[in-house]
Specification:
The complex is a heterodimer of chains A (181) and B (202).
Chain A (H helix, E strand, L loop, with lengths): L7 H5 L5 H13 L1 H19 L9 H41 L2 H9 L4 H33 L2 H22 L9
Helix pairs in contact in A: 2-3, 5-6
Chain B lengths: L7 H13 L3 H23 L2 H17 L10 H21 L19 H20 L2 H11 L5 H8 L3 H36 L2
Classes of the chains: A mainly alpha (181), B mainly alpha (202).
Chain lengths: 181, 202
Protein backbone atom coordinates (compact mmCIF):
# COMPACT_ATOMS: atom_id res chain seq x y z
CA UNK A 1 0.00 0.00 0.00
CA UNK A 2 1.17 3.49 -0.77
CA UNK A 3 1.80 5.69 2.20
CA UNK A 4 -0.66 8.50 1.96
CA UNK A 5 1.96 11.16 2.54
CA UNK A 6 3.62 10.17 -0.70
CA UNK A 7 0.61 11.37 -2.60
CA UNK A 8 0.86 14.90 -1.29
CA UNK A 9 3.12 16.29 -4.05
CA UNK A 10 0.81 14.88 -6.70
CA UNK A 11 -2.11 16.38 -4.82
CA UNK A 12 -0.47 19.78 -4.82
CA UNK A 13 0.05 19.52 -8.57
CA UNK A 14 -3.61 18.75 -9.01
CA UNK A 15 -2.81 15.32 -10.37
CA UNK A 16 -4.99 13.38 -7.98
CA UNK A 17 -8.56 12.69 -8.95
CA UNK A 18 -11.61 10.88 -7.61
CA UNK A 19 -11.09 8.25 -4.97
CA UNK A 20 -7.40 8.91 -4.39
CA UNK A 21 -8.01 12.59 -3.90
CA UNK A 22 -10.88 11.97 -1.51
CA UNK A 23 -8.85 9.40 0.35
CA UNK A 24 -6.01 11.85 0.89
CA UNK A 25 -8.26 14.73 1.85
CA UNK A 26 -9.95 12.61 4.50
CA UNK A 27 -6.56 11.68 5.79
CA UNK A 28 -5.29 15.27 5.80
CA UNK A 29 -8.26 16.32 7.91
CA UNK A 30 -7.21 14.04 10.74
CA UNK A 31 -3.44 13.64 10.43
CA UNK A 32 -1.50 16.62 11.74
CA UNK A 33 1.79 15.29 10.44
CA UNK A 34 0.58 15.08 6.87
CA UNK A 35 -1.06 18.47 7.26
CA UNK A 36 2.34 19.86 8.24
CA UNK A 37 3.90 18.17 5.30
CA UNK A 38 1.33 19.66 2.97
CA UNK A 39 2.00 23.16 4.22
CA UNK A 40 5.78 22.63 4.11
CA UNK A 41 5.54 21.38 0.54
CA UNK A 42 3.38 24.29 -0.37
CA UNK A 43 5.92 26.63 1.15
CA UNK A 44 8.78 24.97 -0.71
CA UNK A 45 6.87 25.35 -3.97
CA UNK A 46 6.32 29.04 -3.27
CA UNK A 47 9.92 29.63 -2.24
CA UNK A 48 11.27 28.00 -5.38
CA UNK A 49 8.84 29.45 -7.87
CA UNK A 50 9.47 32.96 -6.53
CA UNK A 51 13.23 32.58 -6.56
CA UNK A 52 14.80 34.67 -9.32
CA UNK A 53 16.76 33.36 -12.26
CA UNK A 54 20.37 34.30 -11.60
CA UNK A 55 22.12 36.03 -14.46
CA UNK A 56 25.87 36.16 -14.94
CA UNK A 57 27.80 39.40 -14.49
CA UNK A 58 27.55 41.70 -17.53
CA UNK A 59 29.89 40.88 -20.37
CA UNK A 60 29.39 37.14 -20.17
CA UNK A 61 29.03 36.67 -23.92
CA UNK A 62 32.24 38.61 -24.55
CA UNK A 63 34.08 36.44 -22.02
CA UNK A 64 32.85 33.27 -23.67
CA UNK A 65 33.77 34.52 -27.12
CA UNK A 66 37.24 35.51 -25.91
CA UNK A 67 37.83 32.03 -24.51
CA UNK A 68 36.50 30.57 -27.72
CA UNK A 69 38.94 32.62 -29.80
CA UNK A 70 41.79 31.51 -27.55
CA UNK A 71 40.78 27.90 -27.95
CA UNK A 72 40.50 28.25 -31.70
CA UNK A 73 43.97 29.81 -31.93
CA UNK A 74 45.40 26.95 -29.92
CA UNK A 75 43.58 24.47 -32.15
CA UNK A 76 45.08 26.09 -35.23
CA UNK A 77 48.52 25.88 -33.64
CA UNK A 78 47.90 22.22 -32.92
CA UNK A 79 47.04 21.69 -36.54
CA UNK A 80 50.32 23.21 -37.75
CA UNK A 81 52.35 21.55 -34.98
CA UNK A 82 52.97 18.33 -36.96
CA UNK A 83 54.22 20.41 -39.90
CA UNK A 84 56.52 22.33 -37.57
CA UNK A 85 57.86 19.10 -36.16
CA UNK A 86 58.39 17.69 -39.66
CA UNK A 87 60.22 20.81 -40.81
CA UNK A 88 62.47 20.89 -37.76
CA UNK A 89 63.26 17.20 -38.17
CA UNK A 90 64.07 17.75 -41.83
CA UNK A 91 66.34 20.68 -41.01
CA UNK A 92 68.15 18.64 -38.36
CA UNK A 93 68.49 15.81 -40.83
CA UNK A 94 69.97 18.11 -43.49
CA UNK A 95 72.30 19.71 -40.97
CA UNK A 96 73.45 16.28 -39.91
CA UNK A 97 73.99 15.30 -43.55
CA UNK A 98 76.13 18.34 -44.27
CA UNK A 99 78.11 17.79 -41.09
CA UNK A 100 78.86 14.24 -42.08
CA UNK A 101 79.69 15.49 -45.56
CA UNK A 102 77.16 13.42 -47.45
CA UNK A 103 75.46 16.23 -49.25
CA UNK A 104 78.10 16.67 -51.95
CA UNK A 105 77.75 13.36 -53.78
CA UNK A 106 73.98 13.94 -53.98
CA UNK A 107 74.48 17.24 -55.66
CA UNK A 108 76.92 15.85 -58.17
CA UNK A 109 74.52 13.05 -59.10
CA UNK A 110 71.69 15.49 -59.62
CA UNK A 111 73.85 17.98 -61.49
CA UNK A 112 75.10 15.55 -64.16
CA UNK A 113 72.40 13.01 -64.93
CA UNK A 114 73.11 10.33 -67.54
CA UNK A 115 69.98 8.38 -68.49
CA UNK A 116 66.86 8.32 -66.39
CA UNK A 117 67.30 4.70 -65.34
CA UNK A 118 70.89 5.30 -64.45
CA UNK A 119 69.88 8.30 -62.43
CA UNK A 120 67.22 6.35 -60.55
CA UNK A 121 69.60 3.52 -59.83
CA UNK A 122 72.29 5.92 -58.73
CA UNK A 123 69.89 7.77 -56.45
CA UNK A 124 68.73 4.52 -54.86
CA UNK A 125 72.29 3.50 -54.25
CA UNK A 126 73.14 6.88 -52.81
CA UNK A 127 70.06 6.70 -50.61
CA UNK A 128 71.10 3.35 -49.19
CA UNK A 129 74.64 4.58 -48.67
CA UNK A 130 73.42 7.68 -46.92
CA UNK A 131 71.11 5.64 -44.72
CA UNK A 132 73.90 3.30 -43.74
CA UNK A 133 76.31 6.11 -43.00
CA UNK A 134 73.68 7.97 -40.98
CA UNK A 135 72.82 4.91 -38.97
CA UNK A 136 76.50 4.33 -38.32
CA UNK A 137 76.95 7.94 -37.27
CA UNK A 138 73.96 7.79 -34.94
CA UNK A 139 75.12 4.59 -33.35
CA UNK A 140 78.61 6.03 -33.00
CA UNK A 141 77.28 9.23 -31.38
CA UNK A 142 75.00 7.26 -29.08
CA UNK A 143 77.76 4.89 -28.15
CA UNK A 144 80.13 7.77 -27.48
CA UNK A 145 77.58 9.58 -25.31
CA UNK A 146 76.65 6.50 -23.39
CA UNK A 147 80.25 5.41 -23.09
CA UNK A 148 81.36 8.80 -21.81
CA UNK A 149 78.73 8.77 -19.10
CA UNK A 150 79.52 6.97 -15.89
CA UNK A 151 77.07 4.08 -15.57
CA UNK A 152 75.51 5.66 -12.47
CA UNK A 153 74.43 8.70 -14.47
CA UNK A 154 72.78 6.74 -17.24
CA UNK A 155 69.40 6.45 -15.56
CA UNK A 156 69.13 10.11 -14.45
CA UNK A 157 70.28 11.12 -17.93
CA UNK A 158 67.54 9.13 -19.64
CA UNK A 159 64.98 10.52 -17.24
CA UNK A 160 66.15 14.04 -17.96
CA UNK A 161 65.83 13.47 -21.70
CA UNK A 162 62.40 11.95 -21.25
CA UNK A 163 61.32 14.84 -19.05
CA UNK A 164 62.54 17.39 -21.58
CA UNK A 165 60.69 15.61 -24.34
CA UNK A 166 57.51 15.63 -22.28
CA UNK A 167 57.83 19.34 -21.50
CA UNK A 168 58.36 20.04 -25.15
CA UNK A 169 55.37 17.94 -26.17
CA UNK A 170 53.25 19.67 -23.52
CA UNK A 171 54.25 23.09 -24.85
CA UNK A 172 53.78 22.39 -28.51
CA UNK A 173 50.94 19.92 -28.54
CA UNK A 174 48.35 21.23 -26.15
CA UNK A 175 45.44 19.66 -27.91
CA UNK A 176 42.38 19.25 -25.73
CA UNK A 177 41.30 15.65 -25.81
CA UNK A 178 38.06 15.07 -27.68
CA UNK A 179 35.30 14.79 -25.14
CA UNK A 180 32.43 12.49 -25.59
CA UNK A 181 29.27 13.02 -23.78
CA UNK B 1 18.39 40.84 -25.41
CA UNK B 2 15.67 38.58 -24.04
CA UNK B 3 14.63 35.50 -25.90
CA UNK B 4 12.19 36.45 -28.56
CA UNK B 5 9.55 33.76 -28.92
CA UNK B 6 8.33 35.10 -32.26
CA UNK B 7 11.82 34.81 -33.60
CA UNK B 8 11.55 31.48 -31.88
CA UNK B 9 12.83 28.19 -33.06
CA UNK B 10 13.24 29.18 -36.69
CA UNK B 11 15.64 31.97 -35.80
CA UNK B 12 17.38 29.71 -33.36
CA UNK B 13 17.85 27.05 -36.01
CA UNK B 14 19.21 29.71 -38.34
CA UNK B 15 21.72 30.79 -35.71
CA UNK B 16 22.87 27.23 -35.22
CA UNK B 17 23.26 26.82 -38.96
CA UNK B 18 25.20 30.06 -39.29
CA UNK B 19 27.39 29.20 -36.30
CA UNK B 20 28.14 25.85 -37.88
CA UNK B 21 29.18 27.64 -41.04
CA UNK B 22 31.73 29.49 -38.94
CA UNK B 23 29.77 32.65 -38.11
CA UNK B 24 30.90 33.64 -34.63
CA UNK B 25 28.30 36.41 -34.45
CA UNK B 26 25.54 33.82 -34.69
CA UNK B 27 27.04 31.78 -31.90
CA UNK B 28 27.40 34.93 -29.77
CA UNK B 29 23.66 35.47 -30.20
CA UNK B 30 22.98 31.96 -28.95
CA UNK B 31 25.19 32.62 -25.92
CA UNK B 32 23.41 35.90 -25.26
CA UNK B 33 20.03 34.22 -25.36
CA UNK B 34 20.77 31.26 -23.17
CA UNK B 35 23.32 32.68 -20.74
CA UNK B 36 20.82 33.15 -17.91
CA UNK B 37 19.29 29.68 -18.30
CA UNK B 38 22.72 28.02 -18.27
CA UNK B 39 24.25 30.25 -15.61
CA UNK B 40 21.33 29.83 -13.25
CA UNK B 41 21.45 26.08 -13.62
CA UNK B 42 25.16 26.08 -12.86
CA UNK B 43 24.70 28.45 -9.93
CA UNK B 44 21.94 26.41 -8.36
CA UNK B 45 23.82 23.17 -8.93
CA UNK B 46 27.20 24.35 -7.69
CA UNK B 47 26.16 26.89 -5.07
CA UNK B 48 28.58 29.71 -5.78
CA UNK B 49 29.12 32.40 -8.38
CA UNK B 50 32.74 31.63 -9.27
CA UNK B 51 32.11 28.01 -10.15
CA UNK B 52 28.87 28.93 -11.87
CA UNK B 53 30.60 31.42 -14.17
CA UNK B 54 33.28 28.94 -15.06
CA UNK B 55 30.87 26.07 -15.60
CA UNK B 56 28.59 28.24 -17.73
CA UNK B 57 31.50 29.33 -19.92
CA UNK B 58 32.67 25.76 -20.23
CA UNK B 59 29.17 24.69 -21.24
CA UNK B 60 29.14 27.11 -24.16
CA UNK B 61 32.64 26.14 -25.25
CA UNK B 62 31.60 22.50 -25.29
CA UNK B 63 28.41 23.34 -27.11
CA UNK B 64 30.45 25.14 -29.76
CA UNK B 65 32.78 22.23 -30.34
CA UNK B 66 29.88 19.77 -30.45
CA UNK B 67 27.57 21.90 -32.54
CA UNK B 68 27.87 19.39 -35.35
CA UNK B 69 26.26 16.71 -33.23
CA UNK B 70 23.21 18.86 -32.47
CA UNK B 71 20.07 17.40 -33.97
CA UNK B 72 17.84 20.26 -35.20
CA UNK B 73 14.75 18.17 -34.52
CA UNK B 74 15.47 18.61 -30.80
CA UNK B 75 15.00 21.79 -28.88
CA UNK B 76 18.27 23.69 -28.74
CA UNK B 77 17.73 24.62 -25.10
CA UNK B 78 17.25 20.97 -24.08
CA UNK B 79 20.45 20.02 -25.83
CA UNK B 80 22.37 22.91 -24.26
CA UNK B 81 20.97 22.30 -20.77
CA UNK B 82 21.93 18.63 -21.05
CA UNK B 83 25.54 19.66 -21.69
CA UNK B 84 25.40 22.06 -18.73
CA UNK B 85 23.84 19.43 -16.48
CA UNK B 86 26.42 16.78 -17.32
CA UNK B 87 29.22 19.22 -16.78
CA UNK B 88 27.90 20.35 -13.39
CA UNK B 89 27.36 16.79 -12.16
CA UNK B 90 30.89 15.96 -13.28
CA UNK B 91 32.21 18.90 -11.35
CA UNK B 92 30.31 17.92 -8.24
CA UNK B 93 31.67 14.40 -8.49
CA UNK B 94 35.22 15.69 -8.74
CA UNK B 95 34.64 18.20 -6.00
CA UNK B 96 33.27 15.69 -3.54
CA UNK B 97 36.66 14.11 -3.23
CA UNK B 98 38.39 17.40 -2.52
CA UNK B 99 36.29 19.99 -0.72
CA UNK B 100 32.84 20.12 0.73
CA UNK B 101 30.34 22.66 -0.45
CA UNK B 102 30.33 24.37 2.93
CA UNK B 103 33.93 25.49 2.55
CA UNK B 104 33.16 27.53 -0.51
CA UNK B 105 32.03 31.05 0.20
CA UNK B 106 28.87 32.20 -1.48
CA UNK B 107 29.81 34.46 -4.33
CA UNK B 108 28.45 37.95 -4.30
CA UNK B 109 25.51 38.15 -6.56
CA UNK B 110 24.89 41.11 -8.76
CA UNK B 111 21.87 42.96 -7.54
CA UNK B 112 19.99 46.03 -8.60
CA UNK B 113 18.14 46.32 -5.35
CA UNK B 114 19.01 49.56 -3.60
CA UNK B 115 17.08 48.91 -0.40
CA UNK B 116 19.61 47.37 2.02
CA UNK B 117 17.02 45.77 4.29
CA UNK B 118 15.27 44.12 1.41
CA UNK B 119 18.68 43.13 0.12
CA UNK B 120 19.54 41.36 3.39
CA UNK B 121 16.22 39.59 3.32
CA UNK B 122 16.88 38.41 -0.19
CA UNK B 123 20.35 37.32 0.72
CA UNK B 124 18.91 35.20 3.51
CA UNK B 125 16.35 33.67 1.25
CA UNK B 126 19.03 32.91 -1.31
CA UNK B 127 21.14 31.25 1.36
CA UNK B 128 18.19 29.22 2.52
CA UNK B 129 17.45 27.96 -0.98
CA UNK B 130 21.10 27.11 -1.46
CA UNK B 131 21.21 25.13 1.78
CA UNK B 132 18.02 23.33 0.89
CA UNK B 133 19.20 22.40 -2.59
CA UNK B 134 22.47 21.25 -1.15
CA UNK B 135 20.64 18.56 0.82
CA UNK B 136 19.53 16.92 -2.40
CA UNK B 137 21.63 14.43 -4.33
CA UNK B 138 22.84 16.03 -7.59
CA UNK B 139 20.37 14.34 -9.92
CA UNK B 140 17.42 15.30 -7.71
CA UNK B 141 18.75 18.85 -7.51
CA UNK B 142 18.94 18.92 -11.27
CA UNK B 143 15.30 17.87 -11.65
CA UNK B 144 14.18 20.61 -9.25
CA UNK B 145 16.25 23.27 -11.03
CA UNK B 146 15.03 22.34 -14.48
CA UNK B 147 11.45 22.25 -13.26
CA UNK B 148 11.35 25.50 -11.30
CA UNK B 149 13.84 27.72 -13.07
CA UNK B 150 14.03 26.47 -16.59
CA UNK B 151 10.29 25.84 -16.72
CA UNK B 152 10.65 22.46 -18.36
CA UNK B 153 7.91 19.88 -18.22
CA UNK B 154 8.64 16.45 -16.77
CA UNK B 155 8.82 15.07 -20.30
CA UNK B 156 11.36 17.70 -21.34
CA UNK B 157 13.41 17.09 -18.19
CA UNK B 158 13.39 13.43 -19.13
CA UNK B 159 14.82 14.35 -22.52
CA UNK B 160 17.61 16.35 -20.90
CA UNK B 161 18.50 13.66 -18.39
CA UNK B 162 17.83 10.61 -20.50
CA UNK B 163 15.02 9.43 -18.24
CA UNK B 164 11.40 8.54 -18.69
CA UNK B 165 8.68 10.98 -17.72
CA UNK B 166 7.54 8.77 -14.84
CA UNK B 167 11.03 8.54 -13.39
CA UNK B 168 11.36 12.33 -13.52
CA UNK B 169 8.01 12.80 -11.84
CA UNK B 170 8.80 10.49 -8.99
CA UNK B 171 12.19 12.13 -8.51
CA UNK B 172 10.57 15.52 -8.46
CA UNK B 173 8.03 14.42 -5.86
CA UNK B 174 10.68 12.82 -3.70
CA UNK B 175 12.95 15.84 -4.06
CA UNK B 176 10.17 18.15 -2.97
CA UNK B 177 9.43 16.05 0.06
CA UNK B 178 13.10 16.15 0.98
CA UNK B 179 13.07 19.92 0.56
CA UNK B 180 9.96 20.24 2.72
CA UNK B 181 11.62 18.12 5.37
CA UNK B 182 14.67 20.35 5.15
CA UNK B 183 12.60 23.50 5.42
CA UNK B 184 10.91 22.20 8.56
CA UNK B 185 14.26 21.41 10.10
CA UNK B 186 15.60 24.84 9.17
CA UNK B 187 12.62 26.52 10.76
CA UNK B 188 12.90 24.41 13.89
CA UNK B 189 16.57 25.15 14.39
CA UNK B 190 15.93 28.83 13.66
CA UNK B 191 13.21 29.01 16.30
CA UNK B 192 15.45 27.14 18.72
CA UNK B 193 18.18 29.67 18.14
CA UNK B 194 15.86 32.58 18.71
CA UNK B 195 14.46 30.91 21.85
CA UNK B 196 17.94 30.48 23.18
CA UNK B 197 18.78 34.07 22.36
CA UNK B 198 15.69 35.22 24.24
CA UNK B 199 16.55 32.97 27.16
CA UNK B 200 19.99 34.49 27.39
CA UNK B 201 18.65 38.02 27.36
CA UNK B 202 18.35 39.48 30.87
Amino acid sequence: MVHRGELIPAYLDGELVGEEKQWLEEHLAVCARCGDELSALHEVGLLLSEAPLFSPQPGFTARVMARLAQKEARRRLTRVAPALVAVSLLLTFLALLSVVGLLTPWWSTLAAPATLIELGFDLLLRFMQTGTTLAQTCSFLLGATLGALPPGLLLPYSFLMLGLMMVWARLVIRAPLPQNN
Amino acid sequence: MPFDEAHGREGERGWVREALAGDQEAFARLVENYQAAVYNLAYRMLGNAGDAEDAAQETFLRAYSRLRSYDPARKFSSWLLAIAAHHCIDRLRRRRSTISLEDIPLGRQFSTDRDPEREIERQEEREEIRRLLERLPPDYRLVVILYYWNDLSCRQIGEVMGLGEGAVKSRLHRARRMLAQGLREERESASQRSNMAMGEAP
